[in-house]
Amino acid sequence: MDVKDTYRTITKASEEVLYKEKNSKFFGYAFPVTSEEEIKDHLEELKKKHHAARHWCYAWQLGKEDPHYRANDDGEPSNSAGMPIYGQIQSFDVTNVLIVVVRYFGGVKLGVGGLISAYKTAAQMALEASMIVTRTIDVKFEIKFDYPEMNKVMRVIKENNLNVEDQILELDCRIILSVRKKEAERIYEKFDATYKVSITELEDQ
């Protein structure tokens, strides 16, 4: 079975983009996020920055393997703003991302079709202005062993070209490894089968 162990995300906040439709202005923003706390902070910042705006509509998706999302119309007609924004997150296939579209009403009603199109376009422009990268989904392992086992452990690390994230090498040694998901089981078994070395998988922070 082929393990999906990559995901797409953005590296940094996009430039502000502006889409105009019948005097209404739609400012689009994309942010990389990893928690709902961060999402709240970005929304508060934008509400301060655009305190005179009428609507701050957004959608976000979090999670690398089993993502969850939310879409918010913020007072626009149901499904005319949040879902079209979320549709662009899906269409660009990105996660750990927040997209906000801030609307200043220009006095002319756009109708639901016009709103859907405007929010979709502003979200698309924000993502096009972002740097999208593909990253691997990694599993973290903690390896514990006594100092005399050091050479054995280091040999496995070197032979498999493993990424050491942290290490404490004293009498009791501890190494934190980050291993690409599709390699994780094989690496786990390698260390697990090594005498006097214990390995445990760390929960994703």
TrEMBL record:
One of its GO terms (biological process) is regulation of translational initiation. InterPro entries: Impact, Impact_N, Impact_N_sf, Ribosomal_Su5_D2-typ_SF. This is Uncharacterized protein, YigZ family. GO terms for cellular component: cytoplasm. It comes from the Bacteria. Pfam families: Impact_N (PF01205). Transmembrane segments: none annotated. Residues 22-127 form the Impact N-terminal domain. Belongs to the IMPACT family. Gene3D superfamilies: Impact, N-terminal domain.
